[in-house]
Specification:
Helix content: 40-55%
Oligomer: single chain
Largest sheet: 12 strands, mixed
Number of helices: 14
Structural class: alpha+beta
Strand content: 15-25%
Radius of gyration: 38 Å
Distance between the termini: 24 Å
Number of domains: 2
Length: 427
């Protein structure tokens, strides 16, 4: 209820006077309850428009909360995947021998020695086989219609390597320790090598020739978690490579460790493999894991935060637009309020509260919708939802602040209207 010089209150009372006997004018006032009722009445006077305006804010804040939650959830999955693969790998190789010095070779039983260390999940030898100028072909007869001789990498592997690189089989099987002990002429193809050779299955017992040596293909890989170069290689047993190609020693040992055990295994592996000269071996482990993980997580967080900010800006523009249209439509009402005693402050405060209320309601609904989206997407992807508790709690406050900022210009414009001009424009 507005009270001022232009409106007489119920009941009679004596007018206050100054010392000279002149009548003193009371400043116009308005009760908080009356102002709140005016704001609620204005919002519900046009429910369709109010609903659409709130919908814009809901979409913006729901997008903000959902993107923040999904960014944390996705970052947690990526970081977990990083820990699972890159942060659990140790590679041991032999250092080049000094002049006239005995080479520091990796022992053939390196996987068995490393398997005794606490924290090692799997370990396997891998070596590049020097086949000279020999090519890999699938037919002993040269076919002029298609290329049958290919230059492919030939790798000698111990059976334990497939566990260390997390190999998956598309067709057939992997060779085992028996094949290596018997020096069997068998091979496992990477998927890219199999495609180039035109071998899609091992049901018909396909064979390939490496130079003059014939190998039976017993398996085709579907993928690997580590050592992507093996996807385009021909893998043969380590014992076979020793017999046919005079492989003198393993080139490297791939070790998979448990999460957090890489530094320990990196220190212990040289002693376990060459206690007589551990300095002759080189150990490579992922450096600065925490920095890399933080960089990945920070980039994802920034990306999703920018997307949510754009959505929120759209909602703020919607509030400003609707509030400005409301000022233009209610020019006559503003003039009438000014004529009966409302001050510029009262008019500006009412429109600010209206826009702030729109943002507040949109923030509450948007926070709920954004949380449900995060949980729903995580459940669909079988992820563990990770949501910052500050995000849904801060969303209503952010919505109210956005509403106040968006309604600042329309409120000032309404407050600057003169009573006579507003009444003339509103008639």
């Amino acid at each position: 209820m507005i009270r001022g010089p232009g409106r007489r209150l119920a009941g009679r009372r004596s007018e206050p006077q100054t010392a000279q006997g002149s009548r003193r004018v009371e400043p116009a006032t308005i009760r908080g309850a009356d102002l709140a009722s005016e704001v609620v009445a204005s919002l519900f006077a046009r429910p369709a428009r109010t609903g659409l305006t709130v919908l814009g804010t809901v979409i913006g804040l729901a997008a903000l909360v959902a993107t923040l939650g999904l960014s944390r959830t996705a970052s947690n999955q990526i970081v977990g995947r990083f820990d699972e693969l890159a942060a659990t790998e140790v590679v041991v190789t032999a250092r080049p021998p000094a002049l006239n010095a005995q080479p520091d070779d990796i022992p053939w039983d390196a996987p068995q020695r490393l398997a005794r260390l606490r924290g090692v999940v799997a370990a396997g030898n891998v070596s590049t086989v020097d086949v000279g100028d020999s090519h890999v072909r699938t037919s002993p007869i040269a076919d002029p219609q298609r290329q049958t001789d290919l230059r492919l990498s030939v790798q000698a592997a111990s059976p334990e390597l497939f566990d260390a690189i997390r190999a998956a089989v598309r067709s057939g099987r992997l060779f085992d320790s028996g094949h290596s002990a018997r020096n069997d002429a068998v091979a496992v193809l990477g998927p890219n090598a199999a495609d180039r050779l035109g071998i899609t299955s091992v049901d018909r017992l396909p064979a390939i020739a490496v130079g003059d040596d014939l190998f039976l293909v017993i398996g085709i890989l579907d993928g690997v978690g580590r050592r992507q170069d093996l996807l385009s290689a021909v893998l043969i047993p380590e014992g076979t490579a020793r017999r046919l190609f005079r492989l003198s020693a393993p080139e490297a040992v791939i070790v998979e460790t448990r999460v957090g055990a890489t530094r320990l295994i990196a220190r212990q592996a040289p002693l376990a493999l060459r206690p007589d000269n551990p300095n002759g071996l080189r150990v490579a482990s992922p450096p600065e894991q925490q920095r890399i993980r933080n960089a990945v997580q920070g980039d994802l967080y920034l990306l999703f935060l920018m997307l949510g900010g754009v959505s929120l800006l759209v909602g703020a523009i919607g509030i400003a637009n609707v509030t400005l249209v409301s000022v233009m439509e209610r020019t006559g009402e503003i003039g009438l309020r000014r004529a009966i005693g409302a001050t510029r402050f009262h008019i500006a405060l009412q429109f600010l509260l209206e826009s702030g209320a729109l943002g507040l309601v949109g923030g509450i609904i948007g926070a709920s919708v954004g949380t449900l989206i995060t949980v729903g997407v995580s459940a669909y992807q079988s992820w563990t939802p990770v949501l910052d508790p500050a995000a849904p709690l801060a969303a209503p406050v952010i919505g109210a602040l956005i509403g106040l900022l968006a309604g600042a210009y329309p409120a000032l414009r309404a407050a600057r209207l003169e009573p006579v001009e507003a009444l003339r424009s509103g008639t």
